[in-house]
Design brief:
alpha/beta; Spore Coat Polysaccharide Biosynthesis Protein SpsA, Chain A; seven-stranded mixed β-sheet; 14 strands; 36% helix
Length: 333
């Protein structure tokens, strides 16, 4: 594959993360209107698969892989999904991320810098509680990663990188991700561990990004605040925020009822507890339901709303004691 200098976002979704993916797509269209996004099939049921296919977003599961494979295995197999696809420089982005502000120029500038400096990829640091590769092994019992560290002790104290947003400027690196991740199968995070191993083989060919801008998650979520009409994190203006954290109190989620017009369904959602970030998610979710209402209805994804309305009277999963419709579901319908 020869890249033509343009960009494309790539994400993955199964049925559980269908509406999270919808929020991501709305945010990317809003903040990066000139950059396309493709969705890798991580085991979608037929109605949801048809939804992405009709929108010309779907990347089918390639030969040699299965919808029953773990999402991390499928994620690290992006090269196979894209084998006969577009030639743009791909940007992997987890579907539980949303874009916060328009930043097309910054993204294009970064891609240009990667190409000019002959770098292989761009990735941010991990901001979770286990920040070195040895700490990851100790916390999660990553036997394959521990073996890699034994073979190369310089990895021991290396900072863990986060696979939520990764720009691949070298197609060989993208293909190698799949190979190295396969050797990490059996560990909890084979995709992320493989990127760490690849990056530290030649760190000079990697651009390590500021997570406060490119991937706000985990510990950084506690530093997010509104500054007028903008979001700030530690004095920086984020581009992407990531609904993932091993730290208590940052994220609430689970199966929640959503509705549009007279139809609805139960959806798995991960909401930020930060009210400014959650407000963004709720607006993107509402926009996704509004923009795609007819398709979601015709495919049977949205159905009679009576059951969804009944669930809206259930206690909110955040534990506030309020009904869902008066708490985190107030603006999601």
């Amino acid at each position: 594959m020869a890249y033509d200098g343009s960009l494309t976002f790539v994400t993955g979704a199964n049925d559980k993360y269908f509406f999270m993916c919808g929020m991501l797509l709305e945010s990317l269209q809003s903040c990066f209107p000139g950059i396309p996004c493709r969705v890798m099939d991580f085991g979608l049921s037929e109605p949801r698969r048809k939804f992405f296919a009709e929108k010309k977003l779907l990347l089918d599961i390639p030969a040699g892989l299965s919808k029953t494979d773990h999402p991390y295995k499928l994620k690290s197999s992006m090269a196979s999904f894209l084998d006969d696809g577009p030639s743009q420089m791909p940007i992997w982005i987890d579907c539980d991320i949303v874009a916060v502000r328009p930043a097309g120029t910054e993204l294009l500038d970064l891609a240009g810098e990667l190409a000019a400096q002959n770098k292989d990829l761009a990735i941010s640091t991990d901001e979770g509680p286990n920040k070195t590769l040895e700490a990851v092994c100790n916390a999660y019992g990553e036997a394959k990663l521990r073996a890699a560290i034994a073979a190369d002790p310089s990895l021991k104290d290396r900072r863990c990188l986060n696979a939520g947003v990764v720009i691949f400027s070298n197609h060989e690196t993208l293909k190698n991700w799949q190979v190295v991740a396969a050797a990490q199968n059996g560990d909890m995070f084979p995709d992320q561990n493989a990127l760490d191993i690849l990056a530290y083989r030649d760190i000079d060919r990697v651009s390590v990004l500021d997570a406060r801008i490119w991937n706000v998650h985990a510990e950084l979520l506690k530093s997010v605040a509104a500054a007028g009409l903008e979001i700030e994190c530690g004095g920086k203006k984020p581009i992407f925020v990531h609904a993932t954290s091993a730290l208590p109190g940052d994220i609430m989620g689970g199966a929640m009822p959503i509705s549009a017009k007279d139809l609805g369904c139960e959806a798995f959602l991960r909401f930020f507890t930060n009210s400014d970030l959650r407000g963004l998610q709720e607006r993107y979710l509402s926009a996704f339901l509004r923009t795609n209402f007819e398709s979601l209805r015709d495919l049977g994804i949205l159905v009679n709303v009576s059951q969804a309305n009944a669930r809206r009277n259930d206690p909110c999963p955040c534990g506030s004691g309020k009904k869902f419709k008066h708490c985190h579901g107030a603006d999601a319908g």
